[in-house]
Amino acid sequence: MLRFLTAGESHGQALVAIIEGMPAGVPIDFDAVAVEMRRRQGGYGRGRRMVIESDRAQPLSGIRRGATTGSPITLMIPNKDWDNWRRTMSVEREIPADTPGVERAAVTRPRPGHADLAGVVKYDRQDIRDVLERASARETAARVAVGAIARQLLSHLGMTIVSHVYQIGAAALSDHLAVTFEDAVRIPDDSPLHCIDPDVQQAMIAEIDRAREAGDTVGGSFEVIVRGVPVGLGSHVQWDRKLDGRLAQAMMSIQAIKGVGIGRGAGVAALPGSKIHDEILPPAGSVHSVDLPVSRPTNNAGGLEGGITNGEDLRITAHMKPIATLMKPLRSVDLTTLEVSPAAIERSDVCAVTAAAVVGEAMVAIVLADAVLEKFGGDSLGELLDNVASFRARTTARFTRP
Description:
Blueprint: E1 3-7, E2 14-20, H1 30-40, H2 49-52, E3 58-61, E4 63-64, E5 67-68, E6 73-78, H3 116-123, H4 129-135, H5 140-155, E7 160-168, E8 171-172, H6 181-185, H7 198-213, E9 220-227, H8 243-252, E10 257-262, H9 273-276, E11 304-305, E12 308-309, E13 314-320, E14 331-333, E15 340-342, H10 353-376, H11 381-398
Antiparallel strand pairs: 1-2, 2-6, 3-6, 4-5, 7-8, 7-9, 9-13, 10-13, 11-12, 14-15
Helix pairs in contact: 1-5, 3-4, 5-10, 8-10
């Protein structure tokens, strides 16, 4: 199994991630990891912090001479803004007067829609900063680094992960399933919102501009598509082994994600079974599965049936609410006086859907890497690939006519 933990706060000294279960012998390209981390910082509507930070993961263990060793991998991502927050975030009880940084007053006005209020009650804290620093989406920088390593493992099995944004506020594509894997691949790297349609993208930008001018925020939706997924990842035999459930939990764990769909998602509720279930036909034209020689004219199921991958493109959507920090804050209560007061303002974005899509890719990569290791096993990359090849050879023989 592939497991990972992240540690660190938004304005702490660094974020740290520990990955356990990665097979030995997987070559790791840290330039490719840095590319994924830069992608997370992009997108129209991002805030000032993206100018400050230029994230790069530093390996501390588990990698030698450019490849994994089989032992736990430790990654560190420094926070370049640390010096400005050193006194505020100090772990010491007494802070020397000459310590760099400006002491900041306690945060006592919780933001509606954030972890602030529930967190201070749950953990019995007086300063909301004890909660908001860890609840911040800054933590996802570590997830993207872990996901970048996971996707390098998946690439050896021929799996490719892409994403696209299909809605910001009221501006949206008419049907996200009409966007093909090839369409998403062709989106330029410098696309401001990573949307396939230039006209819709301009309408999305206008939505963000209107929100910024009003001191407001705006959410949206994105989709992650994976090509080359082996048949048989996940299982139907227990509730917690169903891969669609595992993917949904991973996506819902991303800050501000309030809904997840597989394939057509919520749209399946409005159509009859004859219009939803994907027919299984002999091979014709393009066959996406690397394992099954069958043709599926549609992919409303999103590559998952019964909690198991079926060889079609895996398609997962996520819906992100507007960010909770507003420049014209909503009403709240000051926890020290219990009087009505405007909610606290922290440095934030107007829209971060494009960044959330990159985090979504990372979380999908992590879940799929775990499912691959669960299905095929192997302490080394060579052993894993031998097991995959053996499975595929058996499957090919089964579907070969005598």
